[in-house]
Amino acid sequence: MDNSANMDALADVLKAIRLSADTYFCTDFSAPWGMEIEASQQGMFHIVVENSCWLKHVKEDGPPLELSAGDIVAFPTGGAHWISDTPESPRQAGSDVVEHILNGMNPFQPRAEEDNTQEAHSQEFSSATTLLCGSFSYDSSMDHPFVKDLPCFIHIKASETPQLAWLRSLVTVLANESRQPSPGSSVMVDRLTEVLFIQLMRTYMENSSNSSGYIAALADLQIGSALNLIHSETKAHWSVERLGDAVSLSRTAFTEKFSKMVGMPPKTYLINWRMQKAKTQLKHTDTAMIDIAQGAGYSSEAAFSKAFKHYYDQPPGQVRRNSNPH
């Protein structure tokens, strides 16, 4: 497998869907504690920094999972779930817990009991679970098969991934920056959280048993390479025939395999990608309209404008004006 090509394709997709990540908090929870987290349009993640806890995906059958220190769990599609120190512990609404913590009022703050000695406080603190929690979001207007094919749940077990010791080191930095902000911490935390998401996707791609779907396509030697070629073009160079030749497949074999894995024919994907790229250029750059048109495969602004309006139900000039109101 040509991992470099596949990872380039993944990077292009993450740029296209405008991935952003946010760490809400890294804090200590003393027992009993629990959060009931509702379904969301955003992806969510939890990292057990110290001690252990339990988690259950609401829509999944089976018993809850026990999570150990170093475990990372994510719900890329924002599935409802709960997380607590024991399966029986009472749980508060996750949104309320996040709001309280961000306002400096952790409802599960470690504290000494009536015996207010330093030893009692130390024992209480040492038994607390330290969690790092946050979210991933994507451009909701981007109709991309990657977003549709995201898994509902990913679990990276520390005990089964010793090769990811570097990721645990990253988590340590992320936790420290979240708990003790310094100049530039907010930018660092956001970037490190994005790195975390990329590693989650890499791990899922490497371990997934699915032989079809967009994420499996990214990991496929031939289709992943074809996606990389599509994403890297600048002047509408590729056709279905050329892509097939580039990955050593006949037009028919390439079209069949691409359609099965990606969920649409390569010609459709190629047009979609060019249009999405054109929209991004209109919104975020000052590139001349004729250059955008030619990059999308059209010889004139008029032909591009007609196709773009049919695709997005608004002309390209309006997209540019709406993005630059002044």
Structure description:
The protein is of the alpha+beta class. It folds into two domains: 19-207, Regulatory protein AraC (Jelly Rolls), CATH 2.60.120; 220-323, Orthogonal Bundle (Arc Repressor Mutant, subunit A), CATH 1.10.10. Helix content is 48%, strand content 16%. The protein contains 14 helices and ten strands. It has helices at residues 3-16, 94-102, 118-126, 145-148, 165-179, 185-207, 214-219, 221-232, 240-246, 251-262, 266-284, 289-295, 301-312, 316-323, and strands at 20-29, 34-37, 43-50, 53-57, 65-67, 72-75, 81-84, 92-93, 129-137, 154-156. The strands form two sheets. It has a five-stranded antiparallel β-sheet, sandwiched between helices. It has a five-stranded mixed β-sheet with strand order 5-4-7-2-8. Helix 11 packs antiparallel against helix 12 (289-295). The radius of gyration is 23 Å and the shape is globular. The chain starts with a helix and ends with a helix. 33% of the residues are buried.
What's the layout of helices and strands?
Elements: H1 3-16, E1 20-29, E2 34-37, E3 43-50, E4 53-57, E5 65-67, E6 72-75, E7 81-84, E8 92-93, H2 94-102, H3 118-126, E9 129-137, H4 145-148, E10 154-156, H5 165-179, H6 185-207, H7 214-219, H8 221-232, H9 240-246, H10 251-262, H11 266-284, H12 289-295, H13 301-312, H14 316-323
Parallel strand pairs: 2-8
Antiparallel strand pairs: 1-9, 2-7, 3-6, 3-9, 4-5, 4-7, 6-10
Helix pairs in contact: 1-8, 5-6, 9-10, 11-12, 11-14, 12-13
